[in-house]
Amino acid sequence: MVNPGGSGQPPAVGTGSLSWKRCAGCGNKIADRFLLYTMDSYWHSRCLKCSCCHAQLGEIGSSCYTKSGMILCRNDYIKLFGNSGACSACGQSIPASELVMRAQGNVYHLKCFTCSTCRNRLLPGDRFHYINGSLFCEHDRPTALINGHLSSLQTNPLIPDQKVTPDL
After folding, report:
1. Looking at the DSSP assignment, which residues form a beta bridge with residue 38?
2. Which residues contact residue 71 at a Cβ distance below 8 angstroms, ignoring those fewer than 6 apart?
3. What is the pLDDT of residue 17?
4. Could you tell me the pTM of the whole model?
């Protein structure tokens, strides 16, 4: 297992009886043929699991992600923090415990999920429009959308109205 941003290679494992490694997950000695190393600790392959989906990380890939003490598979890391772990609006890091808002694969702090025109926060249940990477409330959606003309606003197909749903 490789921990992106971790300390790199694990220390060498000796063959003497004093060199048994203890699993960071269960605390027992690791006598298995294979062991995993991440977050500066050794793990039984059965003990290193994603904090969200509980998948055994040694079975689903060769990397894991850590943030705020959580160990995550790639899919759950992206679900929680987006591809970068940063807010799509302000670019700041999003803490693991913070609620987020999502639109078209982007992740936002609650305070940053705002209309591009009036800057009012979009709340759960509010209708909004996502156009060329910008969020618009129902009131401030571009006039060309109301009239059914896209003109130069957007080159991609129109994204249908969406409802705001908070994610954990």
Report:
1. 41
2. 38, 39, 48, 49, 50, 51, 57, 64, 65
3. 44
4. 0.46
